[in-house]
């Protein structure tokens, strides 16, 4: 088991390092921050001074080594825009994003999974058809369309909710709804198909043949076996908690990490972009690790395979 | 940040807290507060006039926050009017003396004195030891920093562009200052009301721990002062009761950053915002049709131009460039893409040049004449080889559709122009590969024909520095424009510069003047200035 954890952690660190290296190179090859930040009319003296200040004239490998050295000392650099520490800028925005993504994730899980399971248990019924139809609607409509439609209905026409901003809890309702509707649809469809597949397995027939109550068959035999693919999907959703609200934050002018990503990438604010990517990569990797450990808890076969038994 | 129980609780608390922030900034008392939705508040996350030299910066700074010794007449002819100085005179060609308005207070209660003016043009604040062109710095010993502040690296270069030959500012007495230039300069007054030359409080600078602290809340003399600045989110300014021009009419002005056009429009329609800025022309009809709303359009001190790269073998021949200029139906672009809500200017000139009698009457952009364009291409022996057009995706309003229209118009006369989409300015200027035509805009910064002509296309302008363009006579005339104090000689020089750069050896061709569109509640009875600036002083509120 220790070896398993060690290998997983080593892979996680390697993944983060690769992401950071890739981002470092791509960002520097795709545009000069001095030109972008200072604009097309900036005098050459100003551009030269800016490049010298931020070490942009050094060879790429030198910049890369300096960056790795900084990272090793947990120095994430400062923003080229206003000289604020990059990590401070990023961490200031994380709570606002989590304020949307965590409730949205809860809604996805609390509505999507029961709806999918219910549809599977009542296959070919009106309820099943309804769930399928609504889930297709949910995950096919792009969030930027859905968000604007919700604003038109609830803010412009009905006047019940604000169109955007972050001045109170009710400002979060439409963004959370926009984010969760698609995820509910995906989880509902996934749960339904996973349950249908499990319900057709011989061990379900065996359980029913030995006279177990239907409730026990579902709770003790069907659901745990259907949970593995669902947990995988939830793992992706947990990994996207930090970075999964880029579009919605833009539509609703919500000052979270998604907005910071867009602005920082557009301005090639290198330290901030790299810091954001580090946080996102770390959260993705952490979510994957959690899913791996959850597999072991859900499926004894995987547990015994890891322990070599 | 160590992962401790306390930090974890703080973090979770912040996440929850962000949902229950109080609905603040409601109208208080008898004065109204307004909310303005903009695409961008600032580009560089500071409120420093020298670090945020952009259109969006102009909107949040002027005339509500920053003020200069001389002010721009925002709602009038855009000429100079007394500001923090009540009068000025010219002891000689290199010097301007100004009498300060007495009794002006900064937002921290300090009285404006010559010391603040001297500081505002000091090495510590701007020039960082850079020497003026044609002379040496005066009074360097007066400006020792009070604490260590890292001035953004780009500021000295930007400051020297506006004040290339300023040797220093002398405090003659408490209410009199003299600006000493190394070279004769007829445009010193224009430079004093240009973007950047505004006055900051010295004590506030000295007391700020870092540049970032100061630049997030600069202390100025404007009618509104900074209450809260959340970069990329919002800027709230509150009325300054001690304003020298009388109590401002609004309680608070709140700029909120709403990047999506549709969201700004929706917020305006739902009544959440009082103003929605940065509207594309295709949104005008929808907003104008809504009850209680209107759209104000205003042309700004900025022209959209297409520039040529003379290093390109085909464009090296001025006949080909002339063909480009004559094959554009500018009025069709203005009508189709701008709804007729902007104008085609008289070449690279602005109407406001008339305030100093530097406008060349009778000058116009090259006429639309496809036959002439075809004939010019025939004379040049152009064989239809491709000419690259490096293009950004709507950096300027309507940029991409305009480019598509242009390419079709050029195709009609036989010019084979190929669009190459680029992501940023670094890629536009990349010296690798072949350049051809590209987009640019030309700004009037000091209300003198020096800007944009000499500043952008002269020997030190970007067009020549990037080797897009060169012309010996243009360079000689640029020197006349910069150093002559004879208005008649300067006027002849700018007339000749227009002839060369727009007809004989084209460096660019003007397409149209840029315009901005602001949606607003009609009840506010407010007028947009011909600028990005939004005037919320008493004279323009419920006027």
Total number of helices of chain B: 19
What oligomerization state is this entry in? heterodimer
What portion of residues of chain A is helical? over 70%
CATH architecture heading of the largest domain in chain A? Orthogonal Bundle
What portion of the residues of chain B fall into strands of 2 or more residues?
15-25%
Order of helices and strands of chain A: HHHHHHHHHHHHHH
Count of all domains of chain B? 2
> What is the CATH first-level class name of the largest domain in chain A?
Mainly Alpha
Structural class of chain A: mainly alpha
Q: Residue share in helices of chain B?
A: 25-40%
Family (chain B): Belongs to the bacterial solute-binding protein 5 family.
InterPro entries (chain B): Peptide/Ni-bd (IPR030678), SBP_5 (IPR039424), SBP_5_dom (IPR000914)
Protein name (chain B): ABC transporter substrate-binding protein
Main location (chain B): periplasm
Q: Could you characterize the architecture of this molecule?
A:
The complex is a heterodimer of chains A (309) and B (543). The model of chain A has no long low-confidence stretch (mean pLDDT 88). Chain A has 2 domains: 2-72, no CATH class; 93-308, MetI-like fold (Orthogonal Bundle). Chain A is flat, with a radius of gyration of 24 Å. Chain A is mainly alpha-helical. Helix content of chain A is 76%, strand content 0%. The longest helix of chain A is centred in the middle third of the chain and has 36 residues, at 86-121. Chain A contains 14 helices and no strands. Chain B is an alpha+beta fold and 543 residues long. Chain B has 2 domains: 5-10 and 300-515, Dipeptide-binding Protein, domain 3, CATH 3.10.105; 37-239, D-Maltodextrin-Binding Protein, domain 2 (3-Layer(aba) Sandwich). Chain B has helices at 5-17, 55-61, 114-120, 123-127, 155-162, 188-192, 202-207, 211-216, 261-269, 284-289, 318-326, 330-338, 370-380, 399-412, 425-428, 450-457, 462-465, 472-483, 487-504, and strands at 32-38, 70-72, 80-82, 85-92, 95-100, 166-173, 176-181, 224-230, 234-239, 250-257, 275-276, 293-308, 387-392, 417-422, 437-443, 508-521. Chain B has a 10-stranded mixed sheet, sandwiched between helices. Chain B has a 4-stranded antiparallel sheet with strand order 4-5-7-6, covered by helices on one side. In chain B, strand 8 (224-230) and strand 9 form a beta hairpin. The longest helix of chain B is centred in the C-terminal third of the chain and has 18 residues, at 487-504. Chain B is globular, with a radius of gyration of 25 Å. Chain B starts with a helix and ends in a 22-residue tail after the last strand. Mean pLDDT of chain B is 90; it is low at 18-29. The interface between A and B is large, with 62 and 66 residues.
